[in-house]
C-alpha cells in the first residue's frame, strides 16, 4: 500500500511539472516579438539600388568630402572609381588594406624611381595637393626640381645657404619675398621683387624699366641719387632708367644723348666728356667743385 501511495505521489508531481511547463511555454509563444510595431513596405525594395553619389558619401564621410572639395585636384571624380567595394570592412577579417585602393592602379611612378612611397608625402589621398614638407620630401627636392639646386650652386648667394623648406614651408607654396626681406621703399609692390631678382639667383639682377624707379635705385645708391636730385643740371630731370637702360649697372655713353655738344675743334682736343664734366650725376659741377 505504501509503494502504491509513493508511485501515485510521483505521478501527480510529474503531471504538475508538465502542466506548469506547458503554461509557461504557451505564455512565451504569445509574447510580442518586437517592442514596436512597424508595418512592412515591400515596395521599398522593389527597385535595384543605384550607386551612391559623392554628396551622399559625404553625409557620413564629411572630412574626406571637404578635403576633396578644397584640395582634391584631379581626384575630384566619383568615389567609387577608386572605392570599388564599399562597406565591406570587417575587423575580425582584418581586410582594411585589401579593400583600400592602391596608388599604382592609376599612377605609374609619377615622381621617378626614388619617390615611390606615395603616402609618405600624400598623407591624405582625398587632398593630393596638400603635401606636407616632411624629411622625405625635403631630402629629395631635386628628384623633380633639379633646376633650382643648379642655379643656387652656380650663382651662390645667401639663398644658397638655406634649405628649401625655409621658404617653401609646404609643397607648392611660393612665399612672398617680404617674409624675409624689407622692400626697397615704402610703396614698393610685393610682386615687383622677382621681376628684378630671380629667387634662386637673386644677385643676377634682371632689368625692368617699369620697376627701376628713382625710389628703387635710391635703396642702394642713395648718395648718387641725392647728388643727382640736388644738381641744377638738366640731368636731374631725367629718370635713372632713361640713361641706365638695358641692364643693371649699364653705363651709357654721353654721345647717346649728346652727339655734338661742342664745336668740332673743341671735341677734337677734349674727346672725353668726363675731362671737364667730372660727375655725370652733377655735370655742371655744383657738387664736384675741387675735384681733379
Architecture overview:
The chain has 292 residues and is mainly α. The protein has a domain at 207-292. 33% of the residues lie in helices and 0% in strands. It has helices spanning 2-30, 54-57, 62-71, 96-99, 118-121, 135-138, 146-154, 164-167, 193-196, 214-218, 222-230, 240-243, 264-269. The relative contact order is 0.05. Residues 287-292 have low confidence and may be disordered.
Keywords:
single chain; 292 residues; mainly alpha; 13 helices; 0% strand; disordered C terminus
Instruction: Quote the average pLDDT.
Output: 85
SSE string, helices as H and strands as E: HHHHHHHHHHHHH
What is the 3D shape? rod-shaped
**Quaternary structure annotation:** single chain
Tell me what portion of residues adopts beta-strand conformation: under 5%
Q: What is the tally of helical segments?
A: 13
| Largest sheet, strands/sense/barrel | none
Structural class of the helix and strand makeup? mainly alpha
Number of strands: 0
Ends distance: 159 Å
Poorly predicted regions are: 287-292
Residue share in helix: 25-40%
Radius of gyration: 43 Å
Summarize this entry quickly.
The chain is an all-alpha fold.
List the helices and strands and how they pair.
Blueprint: H1 2-30, H2 54-57, H3 62-71, H4 96-99, H5 118-121, H6 135-138, H7 146-154, H8 164-167, H9 193-196, H10 214-218, H11 222-230, H12 240-243, H13 264-269
Amino acid at each position: 500500500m505504501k509503494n502504491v501511495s509513493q508511485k501515485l505521489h510521483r505521478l501527480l508531481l510529474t503531471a504538475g511539472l508538465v502542466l506548469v511547463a506547458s503554461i509557461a511555454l504557451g505564455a512565451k509563444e504569445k509574447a510580442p516579438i518586437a517592442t514596436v510595431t512597424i508595418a512592412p513596405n515591400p515596395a521599398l525594395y522593389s527597385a535595384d539600388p543605384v550607386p551612391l553619389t559623392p554628396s551622399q558619401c559625404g553625409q557620413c564621410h564629411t572630412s574626406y568630402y571637404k578635403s576633396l572639395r578644397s584640395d582634391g585636384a584631379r581626384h575630384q571624380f566619383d568615389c567609387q572609381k577608386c572605392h570599388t567595394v564599399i562597406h565591406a570592412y570587417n575587423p575580425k577579417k582584418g581586410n582594411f588594406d585589401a579593400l583600400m585602393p592602391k596608388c599604382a592602379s592609376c599612377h605609374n611612378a609619377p615622381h621617378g624611381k626614388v619617390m615611390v612611397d606615395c603616402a609618405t608625402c600624400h598623407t591624405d589621398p582625398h587632398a593630393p595637393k596638400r603635401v606636407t614638407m616632411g624629411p622625405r620630401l625635403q631630402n629629395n627636392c631635386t628628384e623633380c626640381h633639379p633646376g633650382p639646386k643648379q642655379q643656387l650652386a652656380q650663382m651662390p648667394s645667401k639663398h644658397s645657404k638655406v634649405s628649401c623648406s625655409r621658404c617653401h614651408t609646404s609643397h607648392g607654396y611660393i612665399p612672398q619675398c617680404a617674409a624675409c626681406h624689407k622692400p626697397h621703399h615704402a610703396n614698393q609692390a610685393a610682386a615687383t621683387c622677382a621681376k628684378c631678382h630671380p629667387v634662386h639667383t637673386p644677385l643676377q639682377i634682371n632689368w625692368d624699366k617699369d620697376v627701376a624707379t628713382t625710389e628703387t635705385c635710391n635703396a642702394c645708391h642713395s648718395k648718387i641719387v641725392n647728388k643727382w636730385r640736388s644738381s641744377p643740371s638738366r640731368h636731374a630731370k631725367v629718370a635713372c632708367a632713361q640713361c641706365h637702360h638695358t641692364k643693371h649697372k649699364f653705363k651709357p655713353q654721353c654721345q647717346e644723348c649728346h652727339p655734338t655738344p661742342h664745336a668740332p675743334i673743341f671735341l677734337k682736343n677734349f674727346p672725353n666728356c668726363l675731362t671737364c664734366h667730372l660727375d655725370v650725376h652733377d655735370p655742371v659741377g655744383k657738387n664736384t667743385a675741387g675735384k681733379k
